[in-house]
What we know:
- The protein has about 425 residues and is α+β, with helices and mostly antiparallel strands.
- The protein has helices at about 40-70, 75-85, 90, 140-155, 175-180, 190-200, 245, 275-295, 305-310, 315-330, 395-405, 415-420, and strands at about 10-15, 15-20, 25, 75, 95-100, 105-110, 115, 125, 130-135, 190, 220-225, 230-240, 255-265, 265-270, 340, 345-350, 355, 365, 370.
- InterPro entries: DUF4132, DUF7737.
Amino acid sequence: MPTFGLGPDGTRTEQGLCLSLDGRVTYEGRKTIPKTVNRELLAELRATAKELRKAVPAERFRVERALATERIWRWRDVCEHFLDHPVTGSIARDLIWEILQGPAGLPVRSEGGWELTDPAGRRIQPFPDTPVLLWHPIAHTVQEVRGWRDHLIANDLRQPFKQAFREVYLLTPAEERTRDHSRRFARHLLRYGQAKALLTERGWRDLSLGHWGWLYGSGQATATKELPGGLTAHWDFHLDEHSFDRDAGGTASICVSGDLRFTAEERTVPLAEVPPLTFSEVMRDADLAVGVTSTGLDPDGHGAYWESYGFGELSESAEMRRDALARLLPRLSIAARCTLAGRFLHVKGDLRTYKIHLGSGNILMEPNDAYLCIVPSGDGDQVFLPFEEDGGMLSIILSKAFLLAADTAITDPSITRQLR
């Protein structure tokens, strides 16, 4: 990863112009850049800023992939290529690092370079050749995981992706019975183009569906992902019977998810034999695909699937959302109006009491559970989250909660006519 000319503080300053890690170019702290600046230098910095805006998300994803694959480094390499690097360091310094089969901590600077510190404040000094890896909650006790989550919240520490709050997927009784395949994320209606793009970004391939050769199998496909240890994950998809008419024979808009299984050397591997972290991360991919691309998220949806997804049982990602909310709510100005109960966040307004589903973000109004349609605006209250999620569902739920807690102040006619 290049440094892009950035210094240890994540900036590059020349002739009053400043390039920062977030890809912005400013002049002496001002957004407006005077015409008298060196135009050649300005053009160079803006071109570098454009590259930087692409590089940072890619590097964040690369580091997250190292977490998911249990990659091991020597501590000296972590310090040199991660913690001291102006770009990668902005990601790595907010993550929990673990000595192999030993203690874990967040990086802190010391006179000799870098140390690790745990939630209790204890310092850990790895030797240069000490093997370390990124901490993953699946390998730790509930008490340890809870300790790290509480520590992040109490100290307003935001991680570049979910680590302490990462979802953990264990074998369910249903999967123990089916033995060699999982139907946990089957029978979901997904927006095909969006699902394909998301899975491709996360290392899946071969998901290709369409109406061009229906008789020859173009309505069925299996997405695959190569995994550590010679394993391959397979996730089946197909087009439903209404697909051709729905899309007038054009590009497929919706696909249906199917079974998920694992193979090694073309042999189906029983789910119980898949390493727990590998299994968990594959299931997390599937949960993410469903959670982001399900048609059950459509504000104006209808039908049995929309009803089931929009108000049904919570997935692991939604349960994690609930855990984060339980820690965040006491810190919010609307805490007295909010209660977590089962699958919903209950919000007491002055006009009605509302139930926001923790999986879909859909809203029901008491006392008759009437559906309230609110399209997320993306510009709601900014609330501290212990991880970056780029406008994800937790942000949407919190934005809706703030809006509904002050329901008498709502002026949008598309909402007010539903409240009375």
